[in-house]
Amino acid sequence: MAWDMTETVGSAAAILTTLAFVPQVVKTLRTRHTRDISLSMWALFCAGVALWLVYGMLLAAWPVILANAATLVLAAIVLTVKVGNREKE
Question: What confidence tens digit (pLDDT) does each residue in 24-33 have?
């Protein structure tokens, strides 16, 4: 099987953009502080990632599916904490 630069670049981009959310999730879970996170932005972001996931599923594009499934889980954790903090903040 020949080396496919397109798949390599796509996979690297997927890994990096997904990993970019890990520090925010860890910080949010550790501190429970979400005042500076925009609820509307985060909700729209989660909706967009969910649509990217559906798009990847329709194309059977595994890098898109895996990256967006993982990103959606990470972003949903932050969104859940943010919504839970609405009364406090």
Answer: 999 999 999 9
